[in-house]
Amino acid sequence: MKHGKRRAPQETAGGARQRGLSRGRVFLRRAAPVALVAVALLLLLAWRISAPPLAEARQYPAGLILRDAEGTILRVGLGPGDTDCRPVYRAAPEDWIVQAVIAAEDQRFYRHHGVDPRALLRAAWQNLSSGRRLSGASTLTMQTIRLIVPRRRTWGAKITESLQALRLERVMGKQEILEQYLNRAPFGSNLVGIEAAARGWFNRAPHELTLGEAALLAGMVQSPTRFRPDRHLEASLKRRAYVLERMEQCGMIDAAARRQAEAQPIVLRRAPRPFREPWYADWVQRSLRGRAGDYTTALDPAMQRRLNAAVQEHATRQGNAVAAVVLRVATGEVTAIGCSGDYFDRQAGQVNTALAPRPAGSTFKPFLYALAIDRGILTPQWVLADVPRHFGNQAPANFSGTFMGLVPAREALARSLNLPALTLAEQVGVTLFWSKLREAGLVSLNRPPATYGLGLALGNGSTTLLELANAYACLARGGLWRPCRGLAYRGDEPVEERRVFSAGACWMVAEMLSGDACVRDAVGHLADVRMPRLAWKTGTSSGFRDAWTVVWNPEWVVAVWCGDKRGRRGSESRTGRLTAAPLAWQLARTLYPGGRGPWYTRPPEVIDRRVCCVSGRAAGPLCRETCMDTALAGVSSWTLCPVHRRDAAGAIRAVWPPAVEAGLRQLAAVPRGGGATTVVPDTAGTPSIVAPAEGTRFHAVEGMTDQRVVFKVAGVPDGEQLYWFRNDGYCGTTTAPAPFLWPPERGTHRFTVSSASGAADQVTITVE
Questions:
Q1: d(CA 707, CA 744)
Q2: Calpha distance 366→374 (Å, rounded)
Q3: What's the CA gap between 477 and 471, in Å, rounded?
Q4: Half-sphere exposure of residue 184, counting CA atoms within 13 Å on the CB side?
Q5: What is the pLDDT of residue 572?
Q6: How crowded is residue 18: how many other Cβ atoms within 10 Å of its Cβ?
Q7: Which of 52, 202, 255, 766 is a good FRET partner for 662, with 20 to 30 A between their CA atoms?
């Protein structure tokens, strides 16, 4: 038998198939997790990119809209791309514009969930059968997505919009989606949103549009440029007819209403953008620093109208530039700002004189007195010297050119006396006074305090009327500063505030500057008209350039400035009392037409005490006549009256500091009350400090408690009683020729010695 090579067995078809299936199962087992992960990632990606743009939906492409406190638009500023967008229109189902847009763009809006399958099938059939795009299937929800987040028109963008539309309808109601659409849709020209469109084309609010006007605007959305009625009237009328026909088909209107609307002629009333109360709106717009949005301001339209009329009438009659501010104390809201003149005047019309820094005159004095009260060196009955005195090489005087001698602090402030104010500024320190003014919001005082010097007490620094009004609101609020605001206070927002003065000091200042006598001094015979209790402060700057008046109570601050926009000198009639106070009185009266208003409750830290009638200090055993005063518990000085002393013969004398005595001699003034003899200098010997010499510098040794500076005096007979003062504060008595011994304290000190006759000498030393 012949043998050949063995042949490999033939593989059956069933076996090959079995092995193929096995390999497939292995592949599937290996590929399935990868596929699942890929699908999950794709689904996650689709879910992520289809998240509705809720954050973007909160921001409209608006410019700035400012409204008064009653909602009337004051100003509309253009938004991105110079568009005029004025949200927010609240869609009402009965408004013609709502019905017209639904009929024109999405008849099944209330019956789908963001995507309309029927519209998709209809559009697909029409486009495929014709071979070209005849209709789209975008719902209003999908169009809203596109308006919120514009995209290129691609299939991918269409899918994303559809997914986002489905999800948007799960988090927004139909009404809110409609509002989003109507407040974002373009309506030709630069008008975006139905609020701007209705007012821009027809000068109406959206709910005031007629059926024909609403249909015309609804038709513009498809192609805002092609259907502009001012450029393509025929096309816009055809589009309007189409929208009206759709509304009839939807049962929104009947045939008669459609025909009547089609017959309505197009009357365009393109209204200019609102531009009311420009000085106020300018200020608020500047404070917003470029922010867009719809803001309600604190402007009270009725109050603003009264203020405008009063300011213009006052400026015409007086021949001055005038500005006025009304501020609500509780919230810091500025309810009215007015300036005289024409805002559109080319020369200086747009200068807001309420915001222009001007020398403040005497309007800083109430803050100085409040500071002195808080430092414990002043109370209302504390007697101050209004006498001739040199401050360095300056010899200041009062506005009247006269001096009043010795006056209580309440009278010194009410009469706005300069010498007492300078003395107080010297005592509290210019730097501290300057910093307190800055804390009260007078930030126009932007130079170092030394450049102002003591003259800051007399208002040689500049401020704006608005700053000044808000600083007085700090006093009116019991010493709490808050920023003034042009936007309406909502009641639930945090408010920045800081304490500048005590409530007790502010109450005392208000008491000093109120009452019949003070009002009569401020406004003369106008005080005879019944008015609520108000505190008043006037001021006049050097050269009669600026006249100021500020009026306040617990509810309101009214501030008035009169002057020249270029800062030129004025006539002698341009004073706070004669020029600014009458207008402030007129404005304050409009706040309380019934003549009644609130006043302050005395703070608990204010206590009563008995003081010497002559010095106003706490009454001592030598003070024969006393009176009641108010003081701050734990703060006000309780040092007994240093003025009344017994001389060598046992008689009670009133001995004032040498600088005061010198001024009194010059005035030949005799202090009031007390039954004590006031020393009036004669020709007796004059004391002369012979040691230490002027300008001597001493070095204090640490740890030595028995160090003394020895002061020696010549020029007076032995046995003469001498009174010693350090920095105008009484510090001891000696009998000539005994020296005066003083325990040194670091710093520069001015020592004065005075004899019983009032003759005096002084020397300045420094202890290091």
A1: 7
A2: 12
A3: 10
A4: 22
A5: 85
A6: 11
A7: 766
- Single pTM value for the model: 0.74
User: Would you list the DSSP string of 414-481?
Assistant: HTT-HHHHHHHHHHH-HHHHHHHHHHTT-TT--S-HHHHGGGGGGT-SEE-HHHHHHHHHHHHTTSEE
For residue 44, name the pLDDT band (cuts at 50, 70, 90): low
Give backbone dihedrals phi and psi of 553, rounded to 5 degrees, phi first.
-150, -170
| Domain match, 227 and 319 both | no
Let me know the angle formed at the C-alpha of 106 by 103 and 108, rounded to the nearest 5 degrees: 95
Beta strands 760-767; 697-698: pairing state: parallel
User: Measuring CA to CA, how many Å separate 608 from each of 140, 379, 624, 632?
Assistant: 74, 11, 19, 9
Q: How many structural domains comprise the chain?
A: 3
pLDDT cut 90: percent of the chain above it: 52
Nearest-angstrom CA–CA distance, 615 and 599: 30
- Is residue 18 one of the residues assigned to a domain? no
Virtual CA dihedral for 540, 541, 545, 548, nearest 10 degrees?
A: -40
Mean pLDDT of 540-561: 96
Q: Which residues, listed in sequence order, are joined to residue 628 by a DSSP beta bridge?
A: 610
| Beta partners for residue 59, in sequence order | none
Residue 42 included in any domain: no
Which residue has tokens 């341009």? 574
Instruction: State the residue range of the domain holding 256.
Output: 56-263
User: Which pLDDT value is given to residue 22?
Assistant: 62
Angstrom distances, CA of residue 129 to CA of 123, 135, 374: 10, 12, 91
Residues 233, 306 within the same domain? no
pLDDT of residue 3 exceeding 50: no
Distance CA 637, CA 669 (A): 27
Q: Judge contact between 522 and 557, C-beta under 8 A.
A: no
Q: The CATH number of the domain where 742 resides is what?
A: 2.60.40.10
- Sign, CA torsion 750/755/761/763: negative
User: Quick one: pLDDT at residue 634?
Assistant: 95
pLDDT of 673 above 60: no
Q: Among positive and negative, which fits the CA dihedral 243, 246, 250, 255?
A: positive
Q: In whole angstroms, what is the distance from residue 389 CA to residue 420 CA?
A: 10
Most confident of 80-89, 145-154, 270-279: 270-279
Do residues 475 and 468 touch, judged by C-beta distance below 8 A?
no
Closest CA to 760 of 724, 735, 732: 724
Q: Looking at this protein, which amino acid is placed at residue 768? A: E
Residue 420, Ramachandran bin (φ over 0: left; ψ between -120 and 50: alpha; else beta): alpha
The identity of residue 152, as a single letter, is R
Q: What angle do CA 369, 371, 375 make, to 5 degrees?
A: 115
* 354 touches 337 (CB < 8 A): yes
Would you state the structure tokens that stand for residue 97, as one six-digit string?
A: 């514009």
The number of residues making up the chain comes to: 768
DSSP 93: T
271 occurs within a structural domain: no
Closest CA to 537 of 361, 375, 311: 361
Are the C-beta atoms of residues 709 and 765 closer than 8 Å to each other? yes
When pLDDT is cut at 50, 70 and 90, the band that residue 257 belongs to is very high
d(CA 730, CA 724): 6
Determine the Cα–Cα distance for residues 322 and 469; give it in Å rounded to an integer.
15
Shared domain for 576 and 695, answered yes or no, is: no
Give yes or no for a contact between 612 and 628, defined as CB atoms under 8 angstroms apart: no
Q: Is 766 in a helix, a strand, or coil?
A: strand
| Residue 391 domain flag | no
pLDDT at 45 over 90: no
Cα separation, 505 vs 511, whole angstroms: 10
Distance between CA 549 and CA 450 in Å, rounded?
27
Residue 670: pLDDT band by 50, 70, 90 thresholds?
very low
